[in-house]
Amino acid sequence: xxxxxxxxxxxxxxxxxxxxxxxxxxxxxxxxxxxxxxxxxxxxxxxxxxxxxxxxxxxxxxxxxxxxxxxxxxxxxxxxxxxxxxxxxxxxxxxxxxxxxxxxxxxxxxxxxxxxxxxxxxxxxxxxxxxxxxxxxxxxxxxxxxxxxxxxxxxxxxxxxxxxxxxxxxxxxxxxxxxxxxxxxxxxxxxxxxxxxxxxxxxxxxxxxxxxxxxxxxxxxxxxxxxxxxxxxxxxxxxxxxxx
Length: 244
Hints:
The protein has eight helices and eleven strands. It is α/β, with parallel strands linked by helices. The protein has one domain (about 1-244): Spore Coat Polysaccharide Biosynthesis Protein SpsA, Chain A (Alpha-Beta Complex), CATH 3.90.550. The strands form two sheets. A nine-stranded mixed β-sheet has the order 1-3-2-4-9-6-10-8-7, with helices on both faces. The longest helix has 21 residues, at about 225-244. The protein starts with a strand and ends with a helix.
């Protein structure tokens, strides 16, 4: 277990989170080095506790699940009410203190939330009264999220059932929210998850998860406009075909 050193800022919105963890494989000192740079760039150099884990001997997905559960157990033992969990391939982009502060205000004044993502892929989203917060239909990615203690206890009560962690969260999907615009992404580094190597190669061909996540967010915020444009183009094409 490693913890960053530095001067804390009580006025920072990050101070809202009782515990902040970053999961990292013991063999990936290179990722921890890069993650420290990322955390320092957003004012988190002194708050993040690295939770060092060993690779599961037979099942990467089970190892991922157990790593996230380990963070939640640590948080609960420390009497944390809110736990912010990162993975060590984290990359911050278009970070805004105002957006973070708006998200913290939402979390502090709203009781009906279970998970809050600073970046994820969704199957849909809708606005809330807070301009910096969306309610999302979660699809996948667990590189940067906040979990409320009561929901962490629920997750800890569910035994491993050969279901990938993000798939488990998707099946439980309830009061999930996300920052808008999102500012936490996964780097383009190769995945350590053997099961996802083919998916990882495809994501790289598409420009990496940072680009995919931004496109996913943009699409769901502009889906109606995209639909209208498609209908217009189809009608225009039909008109041209009938004229000639």
